[in-house]
Amino acid sequence: IERCAVDFAWDADGDGDADAVGEGLLDERGRMVVSTRDWDRDGTSDEITRWTWSDAGRTHEEEDRDADGVVDATQDWVYDEQGRVLELVVDDPADHTHNQTRNTFEGDLLVRRVVDEDVDGVDDRVVTYDYDADGRLILEQEDKNGDGEVQVWVTHSYDEAGREVLVERDVQIDGKIDTTTVTVYDAETGLSGTTVVTTRRPDVVESMVTRTYDDDGRLVYLRDDEAPVDGVPAIEEWIGYDGDRAVSWTGTMDVGGGLLAAFATHWAHDDAGHLVEATTELTLPGERTELERTTWTYDCDGSTW
């Protein structure tokens, strides 16, 4: 495997001095296989994470959260021939009291997800999925405690173009809809323009999300209005692109009391497409500004490890 090393530096307060540093190794496909963090810059690693990969994706992750040589948490993935996750086992803390998720597929469709929280052979949560003749999800049924009884019922409806337009959620199985989500699509682009969520207690709009896309179908604007929907968005976001890569994310957040905070994140890449810099500036009410900067330096010299 070609050795590709990366150095990491995190400047938490934007003063030009790194507050934490780290190192990593990438495989020939640009996937991280080991990463270290030195949070106090004393020259000693404080945290080490390692990954193992297959063609399908990650197969193993282990975290040594205090770099004492003892693994503190692990995750393991099992895939089928199509690269779908059949099983995920999380051991956190690494005391062999796993949390196991198992997925069952029929053809290309996920039909059942089971969670065994302590891997004692007893299913603690079960979700089943039903589809229409076109392979579209139409029903989710969730048994939240593994007692064989369904506690949550979710239905999905589509328009003639096959786009999801309505999701209804009954969390009490009493025949009364508790949450309704309606999505409206832009007539020109066919992309989702507005999503509205309402509940029956009280029967008011809980949230409204509005999206705008560019000519290439990429999201460039998002507005999220949360209850009470009073004309002041909880979040407004703008996304900028350079070619096919997102390079900026800016926006405002409602922090309460009629006050807004502004944020701006920018990403820079080298000619090989590696992320080399990320900066985030947060402007709080009263013009108080916080700046954070992270840089990555790569050394891909063709040697092996």
Describe what this molecule looks like in 3D.
This protein is mainly β. The protein has one domain (54-299). Helices cover 0% and strands 59% of the residues. The chain is built from no helices and 22 strands. The protein has strands spanning 4-11, 20-26, 32-38, 47-53, 58-64, 73-79, 85-91, 99-106, 109-116, 125-131, 137-143, 152-158, 164-170, 179-185, 192-199, 205-213, 219-226, 235-242, 245-256, 259-269, 275-284, 288-299. The protein has a 22-stranded antiparallel barrel. A hairpin with a 5-residue loop joins strand 16 and strand 17 (219-226). It is globular. The model has no long low-confidence stretch (mean pLDDT 90).
Topology diagram in text:
Layout: E1 4-11, E2 20-26, E3 32-38, E4 47-53, E5 58-64, E6 73-79, E7 85-91, E8 99-106, E9 109-116, E10 125-131, E11 137-143, E12 152-158, E13 164-170, E14 179-185, E15 192-199, E16 205-213, E17 219-226, E18 235-242, E19 245-256, E20 259-269, E21 275-284, E22 288-299
Antiparallel strand pairs: 1-2, 1-22, 2-3, 3-4, 4-5, 5-6, 6-7, 7-8, 8-9, 9-10, 10-11, 11-12, 12-13, 13-14, 14-15, 15-16, 16-17, 17-18, 18-19, 19-20, 20-21, 21-22
